[in-house]
Amino acid sequence: MTRYRKQDPEMTRRRFINAAMGTTATVGIVSLVGVLGTANPVFRLTRDKMPPVEGDVLVHASASKEGEIIKPSELSEQLIRAWPMGKDKEGNNLIRKGDPNNVLAVFRYPKGQIVAPTNLEATIDGEIVAYSDICTHAGCSVSDDDQQEGQMKCPCHSGQYDPKRGCIVVGGPPPRPLAQLPIKMDGDKLVVAGFFLENPYPFTEAEWEARKEAVKAQLA
C-alpha cells in the first residue's frame, strides 16, 4: 500500500520563491532576500547595516526611485517602502540597506484614523506613521492587502497587520506587531526620531537592547 505524506497547507519559503520566479506579478516587489528573511545577523556591524537611527532621512526603496528623498505629498494610505539614509564616517550620504531587514513601510492617513495602540507621539501630526516592513513570523517583506483595504498582508504565510492600530496582528501566524519607528519632520524631509519602539525582526528583546548599545557605542 502506498502511503502519502500529509502536506503542510502553508506555502513554504522554497515553494514561494519558485512561484515568485515564475509569476512575479502575483508577488509585487517582494525581493528574494525579503522572501528568505534572515536569521539574527552574524556580521560585523557597519554603518550600512545599522538599524535606523535618529537623524536618518527616509528615502524611497522601490527600484524606480531608490535613494530619492520621500516627500510628504507622495504619501497616502498606499504603502510606500523606504530605506533610512544616514552618513558614513566621512559625512557622505549612506543608505542603510546592508541589512535587508532595515526596509520600512510608511503611510499617511487622514487625521483621526490612526489610533491606539499606535504611539501617536511617534507619528507626524497623527497622520504619517512608519513601521518595519519585515514580518515578525518568518522575515518576509509585507505588502498592502489587496483583499482588505487598509491592512497589510505578508505574501509568505498570510500574516495580516493593521497599520492604523500600531500594526497589530489581525490574522495569520505572526507572533507580534510590526515595530513602529518614531519619525518627525525636518523641513520637507521625513526624519527618524529614534530607535524602533519595539524589537524588530529578527531580534529578541534582549538582542535588540544589545544592538542599540552597540550602535550607540560605534556612533559615539
TrEMBL record:
UniProt keyword list: 2Fe-2S, Disulfide bond, Iron, Iron-sulfur, Membrane, Metal-binding, Transmembrane, Transmembrane helix
What residue range is the signal peptide?
none
Q: Which Pfam families match?
A: Rieske
List, in alphabetical order, the Gene Ontology terms for molecular function in this entry: 2 iron, 2 sulfur cluster binding; metal ion binding
Transmembrane segments in this chain: where?
16-37
Q: Which InterPro entries match?
A: Rieske_2Fe-2S, Rieske_2Fe-2S_sf, Rieske_Fe-S_prot
**Which intervals hold domain Rieske?**
117-192
Lineage, top-rank taxon, reads: Bacteria
* Gene3D superfamilies xref list: Rieske [2Fe-2S] iron-sulphur domain
PANTHER family given in the database record: CYTOCHROME B-C1 COMPLEX SUBUNIT RIESKE, MITOCHONDRIAL
UniProt-recorded name of the protein: Rieske iron-sulfur protein
To which species is this protein native?
Deinococcus humi
Organism lineage string? Bacteria, Thermotogati, Deinococcota, Deinococci, Deinococcales
